[in-house]
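hey so u asked for the seq, here:
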Amino acid sequence: MTKPCDLSAIDARRLIGTKVLSPVELLASCLERIGETNTVLNAVVAMDEDAAIATAKAAEQAVVDGEELDILHGLPVGIKDLNATMGLRTTWGSLIHKDHVPEEDDSMVANVRDCGANVFSKTNTPEFGAGANTKNMVYGATGNPFDPDKTCAGSSGGSAVALAAGMMPLATGSDYGGSLRTPAAFCGITGYRPSPGVVPATGRPVSLNPFSVIGPMGRTVADTHLLLCAQIDQNKHDPFSSLDGLVIPEVLSGIDLSGLSVAISTDLGCAPIDRDIARIFEERVGKFRHVFAQTSDRDPAMADVHEAFEITRGVNFVGAHRQRLEKHRDLLGPNVIDNTERGLEYSLGDVAWAHTVQSRIYADFIDLFDEVDILICPAASVSPFPHSQLFVEEINGEKMPTYMRWLAMTYALTMALPAACALPCGVDHLGMPFGIQVVGPNGSDALILEVAHSLEALLATNPETARPIPDLSKLIA
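ran it, structure tokens below
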């Protein structure tokens, strides 16, 4: 029989509303699963059980009293440890803040809490979100639920692992170079990167940078969409925040895939990708491309994307971490140090050039969708690798020029400011989760969510493309 912690967020919330499932029972089940699996996975890094139980009891009483219930009422939600949580330890994965307990929530967390969520835990992340391998000097490494010796990617790795293992029904993430999408692909869950400003990101050191976004994660598209509905807001502290013209449906009903024109790209024309992963992607797409009205194998225009990404990302790192590098170098990990130092080497001319390249990539990407409705591509370039290895050093025998290059399948798209959903699509040649991206232009959030919802239902009908489930008995043992 399914345990409460294994229910989808949609089902759990429905059962709470109909008085079939108690928020206290759901929380207890999540805490039990955390107790069984977190020792080996290290996904949840901070909790306040007493406060969580008190919140669950209050949520239960509200149901009994017949109060109006919000969309996340009684659902335990994990918060990536890059967002401040009132009264709950928040470290950003950094020794500098290893004992920090915020006095208030950041704006996104406050919105999620106001929608009825039980904000009960923090999930692990690389230091300040720097890197696609979830490990830091405060909490250590987070293991993949399909093989704890392998990485869950990052930087939203703790959230992805917690969801895959059934520790919680919903968790938050964020994405710059692929921090939502790559962990989702590596762990067999769903991660959604919204268009900039859909979920306001306040308190950023470089606010005029639209590349980093906050987004939701769930085991299904519907669950992920549910959390997004709680995160959506308008906040003037984020200069990209605007609800003008934004229409996100309250409930996903799906879309007729047979009416869509789809671009299929194995490597975006610019990303290194493992031969086996490329082969699997093409085989998997071959199982469902016939359902669309038209498909074409074509790549978006991404000339000069790698250097432009490194430069614009360098600006962000210098803005965020230069003073930390000067004052606390001994407490910082290699990713933050390396990115900040490389950022300091760029000139004003380099930065100006990178912005012109990004502007061209953005415009060309928008124009692509005058001809097609969506783009489908892999969500990661390699199979999950040992978390003892900080990053992918070579692909197909070719040495990667930077520690980020293996993430080009996601960061190249970031430069176009897309809406993108990472979906599980079976397992790869090594038996590890394999994922794809459903991508659209800036502002196409409603379309991408509906397409992803319908495509997920189609993939679920085939064992080769259905969402993989980790063997919890092995983790518990």
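The chain has 14 helices and 17 strands. The first strand starts at residue 44 and ends at 47.
lmk if thats what u needed
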